[in-house]
Amino acid sequence: MSAVGIGVIGVGVISDTYLQNLSAFPDTEVLIVGDLDLERARTQAEKYGVPAHGSADDVLAHPGVDLVINLTIPAAHIEVSRRAVAAGKHVWTEKPLGLDRDGAAELLREAEAAGVRIGSAPDTLLGPGFQAARRAIEEGRIGRPLFAQTVFQTQGPDLWHPNPGFLFAHGAGPLLDMGPYYFSALVSLFGPVDRVSAFGTKAREEREIHTGPRAGETFPVEVPSTMQVIAAFESGQQSQTLLSFDSALERHGIVEIHGTEGTIVIPDPNQFAGRIAVVAPLGVLRDGMSFEQQWVEIEHADVEVGRGLGALDMVRAIAAGRPHVASGELGFHVLDVLLSAEESAATGETVKVASTVAPVPLLPEAFDPFAATL
């Protein structure tokens, strides 16, 4: 084999990091980019030395493309992915896999029937930070994991985004925009979620755009702008997650896993590297003993790659006949969890999660993105 041919559909802002990385990996070769805006496709192709550009149809018809990278808006994810499957292509899609369970499930069935694979962001799970943290947990550094706390709280993307309305619309909000990062990490660590209870609130019904040509305009808030989710996992662990666009205090990327023999702080699930540290229990405290706890840093590889790592793992996994890490099945289960949380917040009832997922594999320890392996 040689480098696998890649076609990219959707060349918005996120395409820059994908094109930069996929053009640098020896095992992948970007052959064509496509977009509704043909001029934007041409510009990105020229910027990254991609030999062809055009529409989505042009990408799907390209005979050298084996894997389609779907970077369209979330509402179009299922449609574009299904078209790629129908064209006989493997698919890597940005998160979420889709916006409804039926469409996402049908996509996975069609892919299986066609003999092609689906991969779904986030691929931060493949970053050296998360991989090292997960290995530390599996080596018993904190004993048996018991529960997790995760936090993402910010003033909201309307503070900086020139067109933030879609982030507060149905299919988004902090739950579906940021939730995939946190719950993909939790499912990778604890296994599938069994049931969820969630609570949602809005700071206000309308928000204002603060930057760009539309500054001063208002837009409706269609979904809860703060969500708190309690999840119970099939394995017995629990998690508590705060996702908010309403906090004056900026605090995000917090993932703490607490076990019988200690606590581990792991990197921001929206990043590929970061701090990993473990604290042991204090033990029995007697008069005069210090309450100060010592944090032990866990060193790990500091090679940070970025978006596209999941697609690279897919092409190598296909060649090796092994499962890829950020699978469509994982993406579907996380989507199911998030939609279940949405339903719980709306009804006030605990919701049983219908789907499950196989254990998420670790990357091979010698995985080097910049090695030619095909």
UniProtKB/TrEMBL annotation:
<feature type="domain" description="GFO/IDH/MocA-like oxidoreductase">
    <location>
        <begin position="130"/>
        <end position="265"/>
    </location>
</feature>
<dbReference type="GO" id="GO:0016491">
    <property type="term" value="F:oxidoreductase activity"/>
</dbReference>
<dbReference type="Pfam" id="PF01408">
    <property type="entry name" value="GFO_IDH_MocA"/>
</dbReference>
<feature type="domain" description="Gfo/Idh/MocA-like oxidoreductase N-terminal">
    <location>
        <begin position="5"/>
        <end position="118"/>
    </location>
</feature>
<dbReference type="InterPro" id="IPR050463">
    <property type="entry name" value="Gfo/Idh/MocA_oxidrdct_glycsds"/>
</dbReference>
<keyword id="KW-0520">NAD</keyword>
<dbReference type="InterPro" id="IPR000683">
    <property type="entry name" value="Gfo/Idh/MocA-like_OxRdtase_N"/>
</dbReference>
<dbReference type="InterPro" id="IPR036291">
    <property type="entry name" value="NAD(P)-bd_dom_sf"/>
</dbReference>
<protein>
    <submittedName>
        <fullName>Putative dehydrogenase</fullName>
    </submittedName>
</protein>
<dbReference type="InterPro" id="IPR055170">
    <property type="entry name" value="GFO_IDH_MocA-like_dom"/>
</dbReference>
<dbReference type="Pfam" id="PF22725">
    <property type="entry name" value="GFO_IDH_MocA_C3"/>
</dbReference>
<dbReference type="GO" id="GO:0000166">
    <property type="term" value="F:nucleotide binding"/>
</dbReference>
<keyword id="KW-0560">Oxidoreductase</keyword>
